[in-house]
Amino acid sequence: MQLQDKVAVITGGARGIGLAIAERYLAEGARVVVADIDERAIEEAVQALHQAADNAGERVMGVRLDVSDRVSIEAMVTSVTERFGGIDILVNNAAVFDMAPVLDVTEASYDKLFTVNVKGLFFTLQAVAQAMIERGQGGKIINMASQAGRRGEPLASMYCATKATVISLTQSCGQALIEHGINVNGISPGVVDTPMWDEVDALFARYENRPLGEKKRLVGEAVPYGRMGRPEDHAGAAVFLASEDSDYVVAQTLNVDGGNWMS
Fold first, then answer.
1. SS3 for 65?
2. 238, part of any domain
3. Is residue 262 part of a domain?
4. Torsion 239-243-245-250 (CA) sign
5. CA-CA distance, 86 to 141, in Å (whole number)?
6. 164 and 66 in one domain?
7. Active-site residue identified among 159, 207, 225, 248
8. Whole-model pTM?
């Protein structure tokens, strides 16, 4: 019960890695806020969390959040504060993916990726950090990066750029906010078997002229651990970075990728 009575907001928390972290946080005693843009997915996630943990009832909250809209971000912070009294932990997990050859990248694709993955992440961090500072009890902020932020990919230039920015923001914000007792760190997943990767596989099939499923199989086989990651593989790192055990960890991005990247 490392997170007993802590209030944790998880953006993009209704599925994939976000939902896996929500389930683990709940098991560790936290009060969990599933913040997502998909209202139906929120309802399903909240139901799943109620089934996953005893006495989850009052410890789970679902809230619609559009991270591209600062009004929506502020409304989320206000509603969580009114319900639980404050926010102790933020997992900045909401993100979108797109890919295309460099010469085919559109302004619309660029705007979509940077609006959600960078602007949305930063201004959610800013709003929650402000609330943490006003409350005066510090906090933990975890930004979900990616191995794509550690290296370039010819078909995913803009996505890689957004995740490299997440790593950089984690460093800058980590240094800026630790004086307020707020630890900002990140997690860098590798290839993870989520619904998003099925979309990624379909795009690779299109641009690399592959049958559906082949790219997903190949990248899984290439992981030194021997398989793609699973959402739950990231929950332990998320607990560590949200707990007192990480109090002296500042501005770091932890690779959780089965050995794909070493830094």
1. coil
2. yes
3. no
4. positive
5. 14
6. yes
7. 159
8. 0.97
Whether residue 159 lies in the annotated active site: yes
For 28, the domain range is 7-192+231-256
pLDDT tens-digit series, residues 168-225: 999 999 999 999 999 999 999 999 999 889 999 999 999 999 999 999 999 999 999 9
Do 143 and 169 meet the contact criterion of CB atoms below 8 Å apart? Answer: yes
Same domain, 219 and 251: no
Can you state the angle between helices 70-84 and 121-135, rounded to 10 degrees? 30
* Domain co-membership, 213 together with 99: no
Q: For residue range 137-181, what is the model confidence (pLDDT) as tens digits?
A: 999 999 999 999 999 999 999 999 999 999 999 999 999 999 999
Give the 3-state secondary structure of residue 14: coil
Q: Check pLDDT > 80 for residue 54.
A: no
In the chain, what's the furthest Cα-to-Cα distance? 54
Nearest to 124 by CA among 158, 169, 162: 169
